[in-house]
Amino acid sequence: RPHILSGMQPTSDSLHLGNYLGAQVNWVTLQENYTPYFCVVDLHALTVNPDPAQLRERTYATAAQYLAGGIDPERSAVFVQSHVREHAELAWVLNCITGFGEAGRMTQFKDKAGKRGQENTSVGLFTYPVLMAADILLYDAQAVPVGEDQRQHLELTRNLAQRFNSRFGETFVVPEPYIPEGTAKVMSLQDPTKKMSKSDEDPKASVSMLDEPKVNLKKIKSAVTDLDNNVAFDPENKPGIANLLRIHSALSGESIDVLVERFAGENKYGALKGEVADVVTSVQGPFRERYLTYMDDRAELDRVLAQGAERAREVASATLARAYDAVGLVPAA
Ligand code: AQP
């Protein structure tokens, strides 16, 4: 079975709908035919200087939400990135074949560094995509299920793998992105030209998977749309409505055409929003319950993570040994 790898940062208490639809739903489907490695990328989260106690708690919370969303720890290795040391070690080797300019061209880095200013931007943030390349290459992953926002990082991973292979001999599998149509980019409710993101400071911009029904309804009702008040699927001119239609369709399974027909006519924005809120709530309810069950049994969560890390290490240590050998590092006697 081919391998896949993906991960999310423990940078908030709850995953948002973009994480769920852009990535997690595909993870669950891919479990059927692939050998999956799903990690909570805590080392990546260090790039935003989190509070230590909060990072610890969010790492558990993120793992519990993987399981709540339908990841089966018997079929998938669910683990914490820092439990497998090979991630940081391979990242160093890859750092040494990454161009400074190449890393500087990453748009996510430019956006984040632009917002923070040079003084508050760490070298860790700069090399973040190289650590991500290490995450992927360690597992010989053929496919990487991510949202559209990760496409450029994945392209860097492919370039690094190809460069390494041609310089030092075949070592890494060159991975392909696996980016779903439709929900590859769930947009912010408050600015539908921007992606929904954990780091958004406006709490009304993101739908959290752990939101209570009342909060959820309020957020979706206040989603920014347009003045036209006719429901149509037009991402260019009506990005807010297009986002709501995509969310509804992805969760309910109804096609966008059917939805547009149902909400045809004047003044149906309120009705559409009400239905989107219902559909979202019906997914959040069972998700939250399963999440709470896992969070109440830390010993079980620790067991799952230990088992996942053990399975991950088996593949990761072999790949790292291959890479160390290829570049000429002498093995420890
Ligand atoms: N809006 C989105 N639509 C579709 N997929 C998305 N992903 C993230 N946002 C969307 C996918 O979720 C996975 C985990 O990504 P992450 O942990 O980096 O989450 P984030 O929300 O992007 O986190 P941040 O901290 O808020 O990051 P930035 O600074 O990028 O906004 C990935 O597969 C991602 O594609």
From TrEMBL:
Q: From the record, which residues define motif 'KMSKS' region? A: 195-199
Q: Which GO terms describe its molecular function?
A: ligase activity
Residues that coordinate or bind ATP: Q9, P10, T11, G18, N19, G147, E148, D149, V186, K195, M196, S197, K198, S199
What enzyme category does the UniProt record give?
A: ligase
Known InterPro entries for this protein? aa-tRNA-synth_I_CS (IPR001412), aa-tRNA-synth_Ic (IPR002305), Rossmann-like_a/b/a_fold (IPR014729), Trp-tRNA-ligase (IPR002306), Trp-tRNA-ligase_bac-type (IPR024109), Trp-tRNA_synthetase (IPR050203)
**A Pfam family matched in the record:** tRNA-synt_1b
- EC number(s) in its UniProt entry? 6.1.1.2
- Please provide the record's keywords in A-Z order: Aminoacyl-tRNA synthetase, ATP-binding, Cytoplasm, Ligase, Nucleotide-binding, Protein biosynthesis
Q: Summarize where L-tryptophan binds, as residue positions.
A: D135
KW Membrane (keyword) present = no
What family is it from? Belongs to the class-I aminoacyl-tRNA synthetase family.
Q: What role does it play?
A: Catalyzes the attachment of tryptophan to tRNA(Trp).
The UniProt entry, under HAMAP family, shows: Trp_tRNA_synth_B
Q: How does it assemble?
A: Homodimer.
UniProt-recorded name of the protein: Tryptophan--tRNA ligase
Record organism: Dermacoccus profundi
Primary gene name:
trpS
